[in-house]
Design a protein that fits this description.
Layout (H helix, E strand, L loop, with lengths): L3 H5 L5 E4 L2 E4 L3 H117 L1
Antiparallel strand pairs: 1-2
């Protein structure tokens, strides 16, 4: 075993307890550890504050992006509403055009039929007039 004097030469504190020598840590080593621990704590605190500031900044950016998204969703909803109105108007106009086309075709057929009837009636009138003239001629010849 080493004596208490052996340790004291190295700058280490020793304490004699009942036949035992208890070696205490070097004072300078404890101070170094305390300083290192303090520096580590300070570094951790600085890192925490930096991370907290970064998180706050990112949260602000997120909130701004969320507001932008909400604005864009509103614009999109309005655009969808306009699109639905325009699409409905287009369908209505197409339906009206198809009805107008069908009515025009029907009117054309009616006009063609009416023209044919007028031609037939004229032909009957001409025939009737011819027969009337023939009848007059026959009646005039019979009276004479």
């Amino acid at each position: 075993l080493r004596s208490a004097n052996d340790f004291s030469d190295e700058g280490t504190e020793v304490e004699l307890l009942d036949d035992k020598i208890q070696v205490k840590e070097e004072t300078s080593r404890a101070v170094k550890l305390a300083r290192l621990f303090s520096e580590s704590v300070e570094e951790s605190r600085l890192l925490y504050n930096a991370a907290k500031a970064e998180a706050r900044s990112e949260a602000e950016l997120f909130d701004m992006a969320r507001e932008d998204l909400t604005d864009k969703e509103i614009i999109l909803a309005e655009a969808k509403e306009v699109l639905q109105k325009v699409s409905k108007r287009k369908r209505d106009l197409k339906d009206a055009a198809e009805r107008a086309l069908a009515e025009a075709r029907s009117n054309r057929e009616y006009a063609i039929n009416a023209e044919n009837r007028v031609a037939a009636v004229k032909a009957l009138l001409d025939k009737s007039q011819s027969q009337a003239m023939s009848s007059e001629t026959v009646a005039g010849a019979a009276d004479a």
